[in-house]
Amino acid sequence: MFGSFLKSCALPAALALALAGAASAAEPVPLLAQTLVRTQVAAETAVASEAIFTGDIQAQAQTTVSFRTSGKIAERRVEVGDHVTADQVLALLDPQEQRANLANAEAVLTSAEAQATQARLTYERQKSLLASGFTTRSTYDNAEQQLRVSQAAVESAKAALGTAREQFSYTELRAGVAGIVLSRSLETGQVVQAGQSVLTVAQDGPRDAVFNVYEALLAGPPASGTVDVTLQANPDIRTVGTVREIAPSVDPASGTVRVKVGLKETPQAMSLGAVVIGRGRFAERKAVVLPWSALYRWRGQPAIWVRDPATSTVEPRVVAIERYAPDTVALKAGVKPGEEVVIAGIQFLRPGLMVTLAEAGR
Q1: For 41-91, how does the pLDDT look when each residue is reduced to its tens digit (9 = 90+)?
Q2: What is the model's pTM?
Q3: Is the predicted pLDDT of residue 257 greater than 70, yes or no?
């Protein structure tokens, strides 16, 4: 009796399931169950990329200052950051040796002049005696020779005195140019050699904005040939410069190339060492601009999904990136104008999948 009861209950349940299945087969599949995408027709537009880099202000010319003679530093008169003039004495050497050489040269000159005076008097006397016939020709010739030797000795002594005076003047260190002291390596009591660098002076005059940029950036110079330079501490202070010098080699430590931009005008606030920002706008190029949502990664390379309007199927397409923007990406290769690119719903796609375009607002 219990088995017949179960059979009587199972028949209505099976009938209800069959009816429900038939009803579901008759109803259309809801739109949300299909793969919905939103597309955009690719079109070329002119894009101009802008490079932004930071650097600092430097002098176009720097002078390395050194003593022209060896000695012990007796006095230092400047510090880093001081502004100096061309004839200003920056440091002094102990001049004892040079003073002694100068005194010796003066004594040698005095002796040579005295000998020259004596030789001239002897020559004049022998000349007078020769005219009167009271001396011989050979004696006269000897007197004339001694006069010439003594005169040459005077000239030599004068030259030696000039050299000694010049060496004495070398005990005073002068920059020779007006500018700002950038660095120093001298202290009182230090012994220096002739030609040893002790000071570096940034000459007054034109200034450079110096930037370290990646080598790839130099492949396309700015369209206008100028670079806008802005003071980082105060963006209202700005000027314009042109590329003046590009280093011929890459810095092995940073992998960058040093570029010097000559400033046409240097605002007073852009002092030496001030941090500046350079902006260079490059020439416009044709590229397809798409929103970030269209970019996909296919087999390790950047790609997009292209929809075929005839079959409504999608296929991945590897692309080349021109540049990235905050909300868009510019493509320089991989997609042709007029093609339909998927910009929304790419996370559900696979090659050859048939998709449906979403209605506006969905």
Answers
A1: 888 777 766 778 899 999 999 999 999 999 999 999 999 999 999 999 999
A2: 0.58
A3: yes
